[in-house]
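Loading example: each entry is read as two labelled lines plus one structure line.
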Amino acid sequence: MTATLAGINDFVIKLFFGQKADSLVGSGLGGSDAVFLFIWWVSVFFFVLLMGIMGYCMVKYRRREGVPAEPSPSHNTPLEIAWSVIPSLLLAVMFFWGFNGYMKAQMAPSYAEQIDLIGQKWAWSMTYSTGIGASEFTTLGGNNNVPIFVVPAETPVRLRMNSADVIHAFWVPDFRTKLDVMPNRYTPYVFTANALDRSGADDRVQTTTDKKGNEYAYRDHIVYCAEYCGDSHSEMVAVLRVVEPSYYQTWLNTPPYGVTTEPVEVGALVWQAKCAVCHTVDGGVSTGPTWKDAWGYSREFTNADSLTQEMIDRDPMEWDNYIRESIILPGAKVRAGFTNAMPSFDGQLSDVEMRGVIAYMRSLSDRDPGTPIPGYPELEAEAAELEAAEEGGE
Amino acid sequence: MTTVDRNLDQLGDHGHHDEGSYLNPKYGPIATVWDWMTTVDHKKIGVMYLFAVLFMFFLGGVAALGLRIELLEPTRIDETGNLTGAALSFLAEGETVSQAAVGQAYNRVMTMHGAIMVFMFIVPGIPASLGNFFLPLMLGAKDVAFPRLNLASWYIYVFGSLFGVFSILMGGVDTGWTFYTPYSTTTTGQPQVIAMVLAAFILGFSSIFTGLNFIVTTHKLRAPGMGWFDMPLFIWAVYSTSIIQVLATPVIGVTLLLLIFERVLQIGIFDPGLGGDPVLFQHFFWFYSHPVVYVMILPAMGIISDVLAVHCRKRIFGYRAIAFSSLAIAAISFLVWGHHMFTSQGELAAMVFSFLTFFVAIPTAVKVFNWIASLYKGSITFTTPMLYVFAFLFLFSIGGLTGLPLGTLSTDLHLHDSYFVVAHFHYVMFGGTVIAFLAGIHHWWPKMFGRMYSEKGGALGCALVFIGFNMTFFTQFFLGTQGMPRRYASYVDEFTLLHQISTYGSLILALGFVVHLVVFLHSLFLGEKAPQNPWGGLTLEWETETPPIEHNFHHEPVLTHGPYDFDEVVPPGWDPKDYPLPEPTPGGHKH
C-alpha cells in the first residue's frame, strides 16, 4: 500500500517536473516537491468532490416538465463552519510547510562555496574564487554560445548575484528555486546539488574529458533567465554542470581560458561568454553589428563624427580605441542603422581580455590598415612622402 | 403566493404608451448617432461600453493568436544562417532577420496582448457594460445617480484606450504590461513607459467615475422596500468592485507622478543609476494592480450567483456568506500585493504576504462551495448561460486550486514567472471572468436587445470555447512545472509538443468566439422576439419590458419579494402552469 502510494507520487512528480528535484531545496520531506505533492492531493480531493457533486446534481436535478424544484434549506451553519474551518487548517499546513522550505533556499552556511554571478543583457557570467570563468560553451535551444558553469555536488553553494543592467532572475528548474538578480544590490542563490548517481540509474550522469585531459563525471542542468529583460530574453540561458567535489577543486585551478594565453583565443572566449548573443562573427544579422570584416573599416555614427578611412589609415589604433570606448561607454558612438541597445561592460573585462577582444576582432577582418588602399591617391602620396622623409633622415 | 402583478408594466395605464424601447430610433440616422453619442441613458452607455470592450477583446485576442502561432515552433538558425520556425510569419518574407528581431516582435505583441486585455478589456469589462446596463434596473432605478458622469467615463475610456494603443504602436513598447523598472526606463525610447502608465491612469479615471456612480446609486437609489440584503448578489459584487476601483486607482497616479519626477528632476526613486530602488516600482505597481485583479473577478462572481440561481430555480445557498465574502475579498485584496514579488524581497515580507494570501483563499473557496450547494435539489436547465456557469465552476476551481502552490513560498520559488503562472491566471481571468462574462451576456442578451439567440449555436460556441481553452492552458501548467519561463519568444526542443497542443487549442478557442459572433449577429437581425422574462428571473430587470423602455419602468417598482424566492413566487410574465411551485413546507420556509 505504501509502496503503491510512493509509486503514484513518483508518477505525479515525473508528470509535472520530468524528474525528482536535484537539490536539497527540492528534495526530501522539507523540500518543495513534498509540499507540491501535498497541495496536489488536497486539490485533487476538493476538485473531484466538487465536480462530483456538480455532475450528480446536473443529472439528478435536471429540469423536467411540470416538476418543481424541491425545497431545501439555503443555509446550514454547521456545514458552513465546516467548509470554512477545514480548508483553513489545510492552508495553514501549506503555509508553514512552504515557509520552512523557503528559508532553506534563502540561507547558506558560512562555509558555503561562494561564486560571483553577473546577469547582463543577455548572458550570464560567473567568476570563481580563483578568478577564472566559464571556459567551455555548448548549444542550447537557439543559442550556440551557452556557457557551462562548473559547480560541486553535495556542497552548499552561494551565488553572489548582481545585475549590470536591468532585473534578471536566475532559475534552475531542476533545483526548484529561483531568485531575482538586481542592479542595485547582491542577492544570494543558495543550493546544494544532490550527489551524482554513478550507478547507471540516472542517464543524465555522463563522463567526459577536460582540456587538460582529466576525465570527470557530471550532470548538466539548464539555467534560465526568468525575469523579462528584452529582445533576447529567451536566449539568456546557461548550463550548470554538477561535478564531484574533488574534481571541482582540480577544475578551480585550471588556468583562465582553459590552457591558452593567445590573445585571439582569449578574445574568442570573451566573445562567447559576453558578446555572442548580440554580435555575430560570421556576418549574420543580430542586435549589434557583426564583427566579421569590421575592424579597420570606416564607420558612420548616429550621434558622433564618423570614423573615416583616412583617420584609420593614419592611425589604426583609432579602431582599437573605438572598440575600447564601445565596451566601456557603448552609447558614445552608436553605429548608423543600430539602436543604443548595448549595456556598459565597464569594469568587467581585464586588460588581458580587452586586448584579447581587440585581437580577435582584428583577426576576423580582411582589412590590413597601414597599406594604403586604392582610391586614396593623396594617402598614397602622403605615405610615399613619409617614406622618403624617413629614408632622408637615415 | 405573493402578487407579482403590481410591478408588471401595463401599457395604457398611465398614458405611457408612447414611451417605447430604448433602442427605438426617434430621429433620422445622423440624429440617432448624435443621440447615442450624447446619451445619458445608462442602458445606451452600457451597450456602447459592451461594444467598446468587446472590440478591445478582439484586438487583444488577435495579438494572443499571434503569440501562439509564433510559439508553434522554436526559433532556430539553420546552417545557412536563415531563421526557421513559425516566427517568420510575423516578419517580412525573404528578409534576413535575426533571432533578436523575432524576440523584439514577439515582445511587442506580448505587451499589446497584456496591456489591452488587462487595462482595456477585463478591468472595465463587466462593471462598465453589464453593470451599467443592469445595476440601475436591478435596483429599480431610472438611471445611475450621475448620468453625465457616466457618459464622461465612457469618453475617458475611449480616449485612454486610443492613447494606450497608439503609445504601444508608435513607441514600440516591449516592456510587458507590468512596465518593470529599470528595464522600462532604460530601454530605447524611454518616454513610452510614462505614456503607458498615463494611459493606465486615464483608464483608471474612467473606472473611478463608474465606481463612484455605482456606489452612490446603490446607496441612494434602491427601490422602495429593497434593503441591503434584498439586493441581487450581482449588485453586491459590483458594489465591492467599485470600492476597490475608487481606492486603488489613485496609486497608479502616484506612480505616474514619481516616474515623471524622476525623469524631469533626476531624483532617484526607481532608477538604480540615480540611487533609486527598482523593486519599489513593483510595490507601487502591485499595490494598484493586485486589488485590480479582484476588480476583474468579483463582478464575474456576481454574474455567476445570479445566473445560477435563475437557471436552477433555487435560492442561492448562503446569500449572506457570498455577499460578505465579496466585501472581505475587496478588503483583503489591498494586503496581498507582495505575493507577486516572492523572488525579489526579503524573508519577512515574503512570510507576511504568503500568510495574507492564504486568507484571501478562504472567502473565494466559500463562494465556490455555496454555488455548488445551490444546485442541490434545484431544477436545472442546460441553456447557454447555465452551460457557462458549469464551465465557470470547473475552470475557476482549477484556477483557484492552482493558486495554492503559488501562494506557498517554497513551491512558488520554482513556479514564479513560469508558464504555470500564465496558466493559473488565465484559468482565473479567462476561465473565471471571461466565461462568466459570456454567461452574463447570454443571460441578459434578450433583455438588452429584445431578441432570442440560437440555443444550439450558443451551446456549440460554449463547447468549442471550453475545449479550446483547456487545450490551450492546461498544457501550460506542465510547461511551467517542467521549466518553461514566461515571456520567451523561443524555447528548447523538449517543450515543442506541449506548445503545439496549446497553439492548436487556441485556434479552437478562436473558432468558438467566431461561432458566438455569428450567433449574436443572427440574433440581432433574424432572432425571434424575446419575451419579457425568458428564464423566469425574479430580479427587477425582468419586471419591465423587453427591451426596457427609456425610463426603465412605467411606475417606480416596489419590491415585493426577494431576488431568489423561486419556490414562493411565480415570476412576472410566467404562467403558473409552466412554473410549478413546490408545496409550501409546514412552518414556513427557511432562509
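The radius of gyration of chain A is 30 Å.
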